[in-house]
């Protein structure tokens, strides 16, 4: 679990849930545009009253398991929605169960078109995230490449830049074009 939000466990009022780009702690593709998550949570809570962890599971389901929002993203957003009186949290058994308020229902109704947009973006994100399910061998090779580039950091001469850029570009071309770029020997039609 990604726990680099620990220093942000305030009451959610420091505005960090409103700042674009903070959704995934700067890792991987941005999944939600600012405001998207608030709207999605409202819509999910409107369908049925649920706990925070139910919402995490439901969002995971929307992405076919390709993305799971961290509690450090979900809970501050729920706090924000509760403070805005769009949802109310009823803490029975120590776990808060969230339901939509009348104001929340109204707000959701007014944002029907925006919600369509959110669902469309989820669809697009889901497809691009699926592309991240690389075979482990490829994943490791990419990791090795990153490592090699990091080791080189700060020692780039003009010749090195040209050499490495040419290597990377030719590799990229070879991946896209497939093995057909090599002349095939000994094959007669």
Automatic annotation (TrEMBL):
Name assigned to this protein: PadR family transcriptional regulator
Domain Transcription regulator PadR N-terminal: 41-108
Region (Disordered): 1-30
Compositional bias (Basic and acidic residues): 1-26
PANTHER family attached to this UniProt entry: TRANSCRIPTIONAL REGULATOR YQJI
InterPro entries linked: Tscrpt_reg_PadR_N (IPR005149), WH-like_DNA-bd_sf (IPR036388), WH_DNA-bd_sf (IPR036390)
Origin organism lineage: Bacteria, Pseudomonadati, Pseudomonadota, Gammaproteobacteria, Pseudomonadales
Top-level division of the source organism's lineage: Bacteria
């Amino acid at each position: 679990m990604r726990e680099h939000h620990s220093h942000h466990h305030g009451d959610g009022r420091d505005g960090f849930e409103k700042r674009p780009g903070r959704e995934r702690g700067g890792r991987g593709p941005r999944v939600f545009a600012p405001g998207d998550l608030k709207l999605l949570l409202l819509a999910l809570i409107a369908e049925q009253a649920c706990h925070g962890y139910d919402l995490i599971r439901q969002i995971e389901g929307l992405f076919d398991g390709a993305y799971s929002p961290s509690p450090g993203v979900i809970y501050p957003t729920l706090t924000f929605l509760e403070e805005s009186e769009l949802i109310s949290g009823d803490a029975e058994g120590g776990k808060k169960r969230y339901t939509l308020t009348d104001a929340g229902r109204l707000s959701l109704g007014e944002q029907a078109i925006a919600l369509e947009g959110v669902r469309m973006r989820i669809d697009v994100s889901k497809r691009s995230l699926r592309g991240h399910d690389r075979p482990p061998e490829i994943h490791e090779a990419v990791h090795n490449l990153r490592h090699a580039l990091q080791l080189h950091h700060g020692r780039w001469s003009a010749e090195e830049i040209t050499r490495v850029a040419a290597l990377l570009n030719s590799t990229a071309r070879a991946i896209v074009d497939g093995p057909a770029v090599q002349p095939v020997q000994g094959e007669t039609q």
